[in-house]
Structures are given as structure tokens and as C-alpha cells.
Amino acid sequence: MHKLIVKNYIHGINIGNELKRSSVIEKLFHENWATLCGKLRKQFRYTSSDAEDIAQSAFVKINEVEDINHIKHPRAFLFKTAHNIALNRRDRMLTASRFVDEALREVNQSCLEQNTPETVFSVKQSLTELQKAMLNLTNKQREIIVRNRIHGESYSKISVATGWSKADISRQLNKALETIQNELHVQEQNKINN
């Protein structure tokens, strides 16, 4: 019987800590959600939904912290976490965007230069890798990539032609570039491992 009392007491402490943790996160959410989303929109020029995605990811990270009571300044921790997530996302997008742009530039440059066997092979290999990566995109994402990156169409022109909002086009392009980057990274790792 003594063990049962101790077990229930310990279990009660865990429930109490979990309730306290939940209330800290809930309070943090209610007091900072709008400000955090606004700051992300302003600082990183995100759409509302992109800012909310980053803010949500920051709250998920905070929720993963084992002992939230060790965080001395939860608001600062939340904002710094969101900032770091946004920077990482931007870096991934830039890397993917640079790769796609470079692959397209390489194709265009090769068409203008004398076609040596090495150049032809290199361009063909790059296009094959890009083509494999693009197979993981939705039809909508592929169309946006082709219109924006290959044909040079602006979001406005794509929006008029397709009826999609500019915010959706931006979001889909970012997701497409991230998917391409991840797939190309997997392909590169497979080359190294084989």
C-alpha cells in the first residue's frame, strides 16, 4: 500500500508539471502569436501563411524542450527559435534556387559554346538529376518552376494565366525548390555511397 501512495504522489507531480508546462506554452502562445507572425512577415517578407508555418514550428520546438522551467526568458527563446528556423528555411531555398538557376544557365551556356563530349555529358547528367528531382513535385509546382525559372514569368503573369494567387505561387515555388534541393542532396549522397 505504501508503494501505491508513493506512485500516485509521483504521478501527481508529473501531472502537475505537465499542467504547468502546458499553461506556460499556452500563455506564451496567446501573448506572442500575433507579434511573432508580424515580425516574421516584416523581417523575412513572408506571406501570412508562411509566417504562421514558421511560428508553429517554433512552438513545436519549444514543446519538445524537456524541462521548460529551465528557460529563463521564454519569449526571447521563442523569437530566437523562430528566427533560426526562418534563416534555415531561407538558406535551403537559396541553395535550391541557385542549383536550379545554375543548371539552367549551364544548359543555355552549353548551347552557345562549342559542344565538347565533356560538356554534353555534364549537361545531360545535370538535366537528368534535375528531371529526377522534379518527378517529386506536384503538377502545379512543376508548372510554376517551368513558368518562373525557365520562361522567366513573374508571379503576376503566372497568376493571370492560371488563376492562382501570388501568395500560393510563392509558397508552391518555395516548397518545390526545397523538394528539389532535398532530392538532389539524396542523389548526391547515393553517388558518394556507391
Give the arrangement of secondary structure elements.
Blueprint lengths: L1 H43 L3 H17 L9 H39 L4 H18 L4 H12 L4 H8 L3 H28 L1
Helix pairs in contact: 1-2, 1-3, 2-3, 3-4, 3-7, 4-7, 5-7
Structure commentary:
The chain has 194 residues and is mostly helical. It has seven helices and no strands. Helix 3 crosses helix 7 and helix 4 packs across helix 7. Mean pLDDT is 80; it is low at 1-15.
List keywords for this structure.
194 residues; mainly alpha; Arc Repressor Mutant, subunit A; 2 domains; 7 helices; 85% helix; 0% strand; disordered N terminus
Q: Note the main sheet.
A: none
- Coarse morphology: elongated
Alpha-carbon distance between the two ends: 61 Å
Approximately how much helix is present in the residues? over 70%
For the residues shown, what is the average pLDDT? 80
Number of alpha- plus pi-helical segments:
7
Query: Rounded to an integer, what's the Rg over CA atoms?
Result: 24 Å
Q: Which structural category fits the helices and strands?
A: mainly alpha
Counting structural domains, the number is 2
Secondary-structure element pattern, one letter each: HHHHHHH
